[in-house]
Amino acid sequence: MRQEQGTPDGELRYRKVAAELREAIIAGEYAAGTKLPPEGTLAERYGVSRGTVRHALAVLRSDGLVTSRRGTRRTVLGGPRAQSFSELLSFTNWARSIGETPGGRVDSVVRRPAEPFEAGQLGLADGAEVHLVLRVRTLSGEPVMVERSLYPARIGELVAELPPDTVSHTEALVAHGVLFTDADHTIDLAWADADDVRLLDCPPGQVLLRERRRTTDPEGAPVEWSEDRYLPGTIAFTVHNSVAASTLGRHHSPRGGKG
Amino acid sequence: MRQEQGTPDGELRYRKVAAELREAIIAGEYAAGTKLPPEGTLAERYGVSRGTVRHALAVLRSDGLVTSRRGTRRTVLGGPRAQSFSELLSFTNWARSIGETPGGRVDSVVRRPAEPFEAGQLGLADGAEVHLVLRVRTLSGEPVMVERSLYPARIGELVAELPPDTVSHTEALVAHGVLFTDADHTIDLAWADADDVRLLDCPPGQVLLRERRRTTDPEGAPVEWSEDRYLPGTIAFTVHNSVAASTLGRHHSPRGGKG
DNA sequence: TAGTGGTCTAGACCACGCG
DNA sequence: GCGTGGTCTAGACCACTAT
């Protein structure tokens, strides 16, 4: 049997199906609150197997576009859009996705031995060399965020060689073959220190929205650790989650329901 | 062919495999940075098909426990990180998961026509009746968060009938058969208003960490809209994301703690 | 009872990483 | 070249929802 593993033009089938369904939903062909056709019908319509349709629908589900429930057809949710991996990964990608013009100015680059906390975050031995880059990031020229990025030596050397006007260090690293596949983010509040006050032109002690991020490659090797501090009112993080998306072996037994 | 759809004791196979692999990783059997056995080997070991093994591994992947990459075996990333849907959904569940004692005091319950924004969030017609509950939430008796929850009439009526000392409104609703399956979260900053100042005992204009959340049932019908405002230093939200999925969680950070 | 999504199987071929 | 994960198929049974 023929199964040429993707359409003739090189697209993967499940992605193609997902893309077409996504467009149909956004275009209003499937309005929020209405039901999607059954998997079997979609499989026939797109000329793929049911498994491939399910793969496509899983993508839409994890994006929060549709729900699913055994026994009934899938329901179309509104147009909620969680931030994609690349938008969460890089200030530049995020800014572009909202139609803004990102910018940045490097304030300082330091090359020094890692402190214990830093070594831990990057999975290095105490005292291993790290590169610390302090940058102020702008939207349409206005400072909105201070970024403190820490790189292990092998990555830092690439960063150090970038042209000073490079807007996206992340994209430049990707172009150099560095892979970013997983990231852990922590979001909370922080108080402006002297650097923040100077670079963001805000009052001392100003409360800022802080995002700390640790990014790894497919091998689990840390490639970047960063602490970003945003002025109030400049950013909001959005996330979608569902019972099905993050289900794990957490079975709550019978009906011991409490109030 | 045999395919009894789950083990004899009623467990789903892919969950069982996922759970065993998770425990093995946490127990250190598969150390961080090492490789997992090939899918085929795992399939043989657990007596399931390769598809089921892949399903299990997809769960672990979306929890950030392992990565994957074509051509090489999966890499173990590290300990447990992701939090369950219910921990994210409810302050009570979250507090318990970190070993804290959650509490709450209802400040006011209002029943009135929805304003345009509220109607939009709950998918109701302008002026439809909604229930607004204002509560202060505590950890070990200390106020840490002000919660403004908005319910459509059919849900609000259930909430209104709850005993005044009900700690978890969410759990009570679940016990009444209300289904929570999807949530969209927005995290940013807000400034304390008069209610916040009064209930949290903080200075006027204090910057707070704000989480707004819209929760829907499997049909996509909104069941709750909530705006929660946390004192600085009391909470941190965590997100894990990868090219495949992202999971949001929240963590406790001791008051006044530094980063 | 019919329809639908959830689970599972047993194959197959493809694309990538590495020795 | 070979091992590995990624994609895809065709079919099956099960669990749940709605009629």
TrEMBL record, chains A, B:
Residues 11-80 form the HTH gntR-type domain. The keyword Transcription regulation applies. InterPro entries: Bact_HTH_transcr_reg, Chorismate_lyase_/UTRA_dom_sf, Tscrpt_reg_HTH_GntR, UTRA, WH-like_DNA-bd_sf, WH_DNA-bd_sf. Gene3D superfamilies: Chorismate lyase-like, Winged helix-like DNA-binding domain superfamily/Winged helix DNA-binding domain. The keyword Transcription applies. It comes from the Bacteria. GO terms for biological process: negative regulation of DNA-templated transcription. Pfam families: GntR, UTRA. GO terms for molecular function: DNA binding; DNA-binding transcription factor activity. Keywords: DNA-binding, Transcription, Transcription regulation. This is GntR family transcriptional regulator. It comes from Actinacidiphila glaucinigra. The lineage of its organism: Bacteria, Bacillati, Actinomycetota, Actinomycetes, Kitasatosporales.
